[in-house]
Write a structure and sequence with these properties.
This protein is an alpha/beta fold. Helix content is about 25%, strand content about 15%. The strands form three sheets. The chain has an eight-stranded mixed sheet with strand order 1-10-7-6-2-3-5-4, sandwiched between helices. The longest helix has 15 residues, at about 340-355. It is globular and about 65 Å long.
């Protein structure tokens, strides 16, 4: 195995049954410290992470790695993605900083000095990446990880992904597929040619991007021991930490691969409420009319009811302080539910019931949908079933392509 070939610590994939009281799944940070410390022993370490980088007891990997006994490596520098190192920010232009607990510098890859971050790579031997992805193409963490991985490859530094479960499982592949790879620095949202719900972990995505972008990174993926592809996050035993300020729960994450499209419309997705991405609302919405039409759709596994919601200081600027009529979604069968198909059904119903009120924010919607095709199909009045059928061939090709990068 040469240093230019990505590989997986394959012996760590199959987890043993956990003793009572221990987590069923161990994230990569636990695996590397307990089973593969040789990967970091005697090395100067950089770590791209945020508040999601924890073990099953909720301890930060920055603290675990900073401890002198932690595998014999020495953590010297931190990097952070969108929402910052603590995961509390939901704004543009986050500056560099310093971690109060360890005293280490934090280089923000979402608004800080890119030249300083690249220079910091010269002071390390190994770059560790530990971020909790959400399982949907729109999330920015894979793009940030790829950007830093590319810089590390150029600097000749090994990259180790401390992998984590896909919160919404690793079997279902749903939605449309981006046709071409984009540059992660200029397209944080959905740069990879994957489906809206891709069913891959960050480690698997890193293997794909290392190949497709020909990064030639010396890449190691330390798997989450004990995770099986059919598992949702609440089956792992790892505590849920909001991956971003408006991803409050697994219930939101299951709906997110479809509901995120509504960021590109004049409806609120519940930002500024405790149920973001579980609700849609607008001052002009008539829930009764919308629900009557939605009952004719063919999307099993979800209940939809009418509701009222009031966004408080929403970061998308939609309807702050306004009580909105809306609909709320509750997934009743997550094995059968397809959030991407559901989103199309709701978009079509909105277009039919509120033709003079419902609006696309075209540039934002098209960026999320990777082009204008979906928007134009809705505007032309095409049925959800007809739209879904146009995804089939690309989804089949994607399933085949992704197979070579899967670990679990």
């Amino acid at each position: 195995m040469t240093r230019w070939h990505a590989f997986v610590v394959s012996s760590l994939i199959a987890g043993c049954a956990s003793p009572q009281g221990r987590a069923q799944v161990r994230p990569g940070i636990e695996v590397v410290l307990s089973d593969s410390a040789h990967l970091i022993a005697g090395k100067r370490l950089g770590l791209l992470t945020n508040h999601t980088g924890i073990d099953h007891l909720g301890r930060r990997d920055a603290d675990l790695l900073f401890a002198a006994r932690a595998g014999g490596g020495r953590l010297t520098v931190l990097f952070s993605p969108e929402h910052g190192f603590r995961g509390t920010e939901d704004r543009e232009g986050l500056p560099d900083g310093r971690d109060s607990a360890t005293g280490l510098p934090i280089y923000s890859l979402y608004g800080g000095s890119r030249s300083a971050a690249r220079a910091a790579l010269d002071s390390i031997d190994v770059l560790l990446i530990d971020l909790q992805d959400i399982g949907a193409r729109f999330y920015t963490y894979p793009a940030t990880a790829t950007s830093l991985m590319r810089a590390a490859a150029h600097a000749g530094k090994r990259v180790i992904i401390l992998d984590r479960p896909n919160p919404v499982g690793g079997t279902a592949v749903q939605g449309n597929v981006r046709a071409q790879l984009a540059d992660p620095d200029s397209n944080l949202v959905g740069f990879l040619p994957v489906a809206m719900r891709h069913g891959m972990t960050l480690g698997e995505l890193a293997r794909m991007v290392n190949d497709l972008m020909d990064l030639k990174a010396d890449l190691v993926v330390v798997p989450a021991s004990g995770w099986k592809r059919a598992m949702f996050y609440d089956e792992t035993g790892i505590p849920w930490v909001k991956p971003s300020p408006n991803m409050p729960s697994l219930a939101s994450a299951v709906l997110y691969p479809g509901l995120c499209l509504f960021e590109g419309t004049n409806l609120s997705v519940g930002r500024g409420t405790p149920i973001a991405f579980q609700v849609l609302g607008a001052p002009w919405l008539d829930p009764a009319k919308l629900l009557a039409r939605l009952r004719t759709s063919e999307v099993p596994g979800v209940d939809v009811i009418d509701t009222m919601v009031m966004p408080v200081a929403p970061t998308d600027g939609k309807y702050a302080g306004v009580t909105l009529p809306g609909i709320r979604m509750r997934v009743t069968d997550r094995e059968r539910f397809d959030a991407t198909r559901f989103a199309v059904a709701v978009l079509a119903a909105l277009r039919a019931t509120h033709p003079d009120k419902f609006e696309f924010r075209a540039s934002q919607f098209d960026r999320l949908a990777t082009g204008p095709d979906l928007r134009l199909a809705i505007e032309a009045g095409r049925s959800p079933q007809e739209i879904w059928s146009t995804w089939d061939q690309a989804l089949a090709r994607f399933r085949e392509r992704r197979a070579k990068y899967l670990i679990y």
